[in-house]
Design brief:
About 65% of the residues lie in helices and about 0% in strands. The protein has about 110 residues and is mainly alpha-helical.
C-alpha cells in the first residue's frame, strides 16, 4: 500500500494558539505537528459539512449534491441533517406521492 505523502507548510501561530497546541499534543500524546494536522482535518470536515447544510437549507443545492459538498455519504448526510435540525427539502408533489404510497404498503409476514 502506498503511504500518503504530506506537504510541508509553514504557518505562524499566535502565542495562545501555540500554547493550546502544545497542551493538546500532550493530552493526546501526539507530536505538535500531528495535533495540528488532526485539528485541521477536523476543522476542514466541519467546514464542508456546515457549507453543505447551509446551501441545502437555502435550497441552493439538492440532497445528493449536499452530501457531495460535505464529502460524506448520503446516509451520513441524512444523519447530519437530523443532528443539526435542518429539515428535508422535499417537493410537495413528492411528499404527497410518498404519503399515498404509505397507505398502499403490503404487510409482509415474518
Amino acid at each position: 500500500m502506498k503511504k500518503k505523502e504530506n506537504k510541508v507548510s509553514t504557518l505562524r501561530l499566535s502565542d495562545n494558539v501555540s500554547k493550546s497546541m502544545h497542551l493538546i499534543s500532550k493530552e493526546e500524546n501526539l507530536t505538535k505537528s500531528d495535533a495540528i494536522r488532526m485539528l485541521l482535518e477536523k476543522s476542514i470536515k466541519e467546514y464542508y459539512l456546515k457549507k453543505a447544510l447551509s446551501l441545502y437549507e437555502k435550497e441552493e443545492i439538492d440532497f445528493s449534491t449536499a452530501a457531495e459538498v460535505a464529502k460524506i455519504s448520503v446516509r451520513d448526510f441524512l444523519e447530519e441533517l437530523k443532528r443539526s435540525g435542518v429539515g428535508l427539502n422535499i417537493p410537495l408533489e413528492m411528499s404527497e406521492i410518498g404519503f399515498k404510497n404509505l397507505g398502499n404498503k403490503k404487510k409482509f409476514k415474518k
